[in-house]
Amino acid sequence: MKDFTVKKLALYSVATVMCVAGQSAFAHTGIKDKVSEGVSGYTAFTVTHGCSTNAVAEGTPVDHQNVIAMSTVFPNAADPALAKVYQLSPTGIQIEPALADLSEHIVGVSPGVGFTKLGLGLVTGGGTLFANIIPTVDATGAIRGYHTWAGPKPYVSAPLEESIVSATGLSPFRYGAIQFNPTSCAKSLKVRVAVANWCRQGPASKKLADRVDVWIGHTTPLFKDQATMPRDIPYDATIEAPYWPTMTIYRNTTGTPATATTAAIPANPVPEFDAHGVACPSVTDSVTGVTTRGFDLAIEPADADIDTNLPIPSAAYPLGASGAKYFP
Length: 328
Ligand SMILES: [Cu+2]
What we know:
Oligomer: single chain
Bound molecules: copper (II) ion
Order of helices and strands: EEEEEEEEEEEEEEEEEEEEH
Number of strands: 20
Strand order of the largest sheet: 1-9-8-20-14-17-5
Shape: globular
Structural class: mainly beta
Largest sheet: 7 strands, mixed
């Protein structure tokens, strides 16, 4: 029997934590769109506020620092050890142990290989958040994420102004067409992405709580300053409020009819039994009485991957962002 991990509680199911202060609504950085199986496209991170300490409740009317840089790490490494794959309980709790990889569930993923089918692509011009962007490219040539920042170098560009009035910046990326195996019991795949919004840089900012907002579901050996990460309200430094920017890919269980410009997409319903003859679980909603078959999956970058690729080092272009190092 698999057991439930209760300590990392069900807050994963809360897609976005919304708080209201006066007339301004704040939300953590998220991903703009829900994604349907088998269709590639473009979406974006929604950067909806600048940095302040997380020792006060989100939405508290305090000044937010302007966002001057952003870094991202996607869970699409070829090495499966660099990502964690979980089956989720009906209430969103991660079931231990983690799965070895997504090969049972996603078409084209081989056993012992990571989620290289994510199809991540960069958008480097036309409505990007900042003028400067460097992809994180691994030894296989795959794009794993990116660092992007406001100039002065090599291109002059403005920060995301948040100190005067809260605004939203969109940082776009491309995703591939992802397909569920017909024998998989999964009804969705939540792709969790590590994101840091940087508001200060250089050694003088090293201990300031408003130097960065870190959006990862738990602390890592390097990213462990809780004042830069979400916490429950009222603030309690001992309680993590797990939060990941998440792109949810939904299985197309009913199919999509043809339109004037697109071909019909056949239905891919969750089967009664998986490839091993085990019945796919069903859940009946206590309010609506509707029964849904299948479970949700989640994939997120492992700690080592986050600690390697989320920091923005001090280096000359094109190796890293110009100027001083940004501090976790
Ligand atoms: Cu927030």
